[in-house]
Here is the input.
Amino acid sequence: MSSTTVTRGNSHATFYIGPSLTPSNVAASVTATQTFSVPGLLTSDYVLVQGVVGSQSANIVVAEADVLTSGVLTIQFGNTGAVSTAPAAGVYVIQVTRVEGPLPANAA
Here is the structure.
């Protein structure tokens, strides 16, 4: 925690970005991890992929997202359908939370 008298949390910044992504096909009834170049992302960032602007392809869900390498966004897409389907291409809204220091072990 900071030594200043200003009350602060452990989130340094939260902001939104809108990169244009073109995912590839996801086989029926599976999840598939895909990577995308997004300059500026850090491995310490926490990302939440809100989804594509417009509408997503039928039976496709965003299961998880991470930044495992600086500048590379990893998204796990799930296909709940019975046929191979590509997630919608377009601008994806992504919330990025940049933390200040290490995460605490609990909320106490």
